[in-house]
Amino acid sequence: MSHRIYNFSAGPAILPEPVLDEAAQGVREINGSGMSLLEVSHRGKDYEAIHADAEQRLLRVMGLSGEEYYPLFLQGGASLQFAMVPMNFLTPEQTADYVVSGDWGAKALKEAQLFGGAREAATSKGEGYSELPKEFTRTPGARYVHITTNNTIEGTEYFALPDVGETPLVADASSDFLALQRDYGKFSLLYAGAQKNAGPAGVTMALLRKSFLETANPKVAKILSYRTYAENRSLYNTPPTFAIYVVGLVLKWLEGEGGLEAIEARNRQKAKVLYDALDEHAPFYQPTVTDKGDRSLMNVTWRLHDPALEGELLAEAKKNGMDGLKGHRSVGGFRASIYNAFPVKGVQALADLLRDFAQRKG
Ligand SMILES: *Cc1c(COP(=O)(O)O)cnc(C)c1O
Question: How confident is the model over 122-135, as a mean pLDDT?
C-alpha cells in the first residue's frame, strides 16, 4: 500500500495489511469461482468453507472447545447485544448485576432495565470512570453478572476478572477481543463487535456456553434469539458474509503471529512504550486512568496539563502521519488506540513525538 498513515482510530480501526491484501483479492474473485466473495450464495460451498473455517479458528484462538461453546456471528453491533442479553437471559422477576465501569457499560445496564431486574452492582462513575470499580456487591442468585472487559472511551481494562462465584459471567469484550490471554472458559457469554480489533464493521462475535443457552428464555423473537443462531450456525438468515470472511482472515493472521500469547506480549510492549513516555513527562501529560493497574493495553488516554496546547499536538501528529488521536468527546484530551494490528513502529513514532513536544513546550 502506498501511503499508509498511523491510524490510531478507536473503531472501525486498523487491520493487518496482509488481511487487507487478501480481502481485496477476495472481493475480485474467490477460489477461482469466477465470482467475487460479495456475489456468492451464503449457502454455497465457497462461503460455507469460509464460515466453517472462521468458526473453528475463533474457538481455537480463544482456547475454547466446540463441545462447550457456540461460536456465533451476529449483527447489530455490541449495541444490539446490550438488548439481546437481557431479552434472552433476564425476566422482570430476576436480577442481573451490572458492573458499570464506563459509558458502554452504562448503556448496557439501561437496556437491560427495559427487560428485567438489572441493577448497578458497582460503578466508578463518581471517579469519572478513571479506574475500575473496586467494590462489587453481588446479588445472591443473580441471573448473571455483566462487565465490560475494556473501556474503549475511558482507557481502563480488566486483567483479573471479578469474582462472581457460581453466577454466569457475561462480558462486552468489543475493544479487547483477541488482544490478550484470559481464561475464556470463565465466561458464559462473551461478545464483541468486530470493528475494534477483529475485523470490519457489520459482524459481532459471541462465544456462548452451551449450558447457559439451555437456561435461555423460551419466548424471544426468532431473529433475536441466541438459540436461532446456535441451531443454525449463524446461518438462519443471510449473515454479513464479507465481514465474517475478513474476521476469518484476521484470525488466520493472528494464528500466524503466534496466537493470543504472542499478541498479548506485543500489546504489552506497545502500551508500555506509550505509558512510559507519558509518565516521564508528568505532569505535562496526565494519563486519565488514575490506577496504573487498570491501564488499557488497547486505548491509551491522556490529557495535557495545559489544554490550550491540544490543538498544536494534534496538528504536529497529523503532520507526522498520525491520525485518530482525539479523545472521545465525553473525556476530551487524547486517545491512542493501539489494537493488535497497530505497528510497533507507529507507537514508537508517537512516543518520540510526545517526548519531543514535552521538551519543547514543557
Ligand atoms: C464500540 C463499542 C460498543 C458499541 O459497538 P457497536 O458495534 O457500535 O454497537 C460497545 N461496547 C464497547 C466496549 C465498545 O468499544
Answer: 95
